[in-house]
Write a structure and sequence with these properties.
Shape: elongated
Radius of gyration: 20 Å
Structural class: mainly alpha
Length: 171
């Protein structure tokens, strides 16, 4: 179990590292778009859309890392006062009852949406826009897959805490 948790954690860290690199690129492109648009009166739809694509990628590829870091939303009034085993039980229950079903629902419902986009090789409706909207939409099932994998890692981590074979106690 510990090796599975560590493998999933590495995948999550890799996706988060890739997403982190997009942030300064987005900032630079935003400056370039503003200069081109306002100083040179030369709007560039493709550059503007690329910033939106990167923004989506940062969030969709970074959500699993947020889960791994324990930075997701939870009611800390009671949770903060609990011991490691109680926290592990709450985390396990939350993962099994809420996280995994929602991630599965997102994955399942996004498949037809994404496959339809791929069948059309969907492109931006804007003149001069990016020709790969289908790739952007593919991030939706990727998000669900990454969250499911990290959710499984968190569930296994909680089980390890509950059975006394701790990898990392819940935060």
């Amino acid at each position: 179990m510990q090796s599975a948790v560590q493998l999933i954690d590495r995948l999550t860290d890799l996706c988060a590292a890739g997403a982190r690199w997009l942030i300064p690129v987005m900032a630079l492109l935003t400056v370039i778009v503003a200069v081109l648009r306002y100083a040179l009166s030369a709007p560039t739809i493709a550059l503007q859309e690329s910033v939106v694509y990167m923004h989506a990628a940062v969030f969709m590829l970074g959500i699993a890392a947020t889960l791994k870091a324990g930075a997701h939303v939870r009611v800390d009034i009671l949770y903060g006062r609990m011991g490691p085993r109680a926290k592990a039980a709450v985390d396990l229950a939350g993962t099994v009852v809420f996280l995994l079903p929602v991630a599965g629902f997102i994955f399942y419902t996004s498949l037809s949406y994404v496959s339809f986009s791929w069948s059309l090789w969907e492109r931006s409706p804007e003149p001069g826009g990016l020709p790969f909207v289908y790739a952007l939409k593919t991030l939706i099932p990727a998000l669900a897959t990454l969250v499911t994998l990290q959710g499984l890692a968190e569930a296994l981590r909680s089980l390890l805490v509950l059975t006394g074979r701790n990898v990392r106690a819940p935060e």
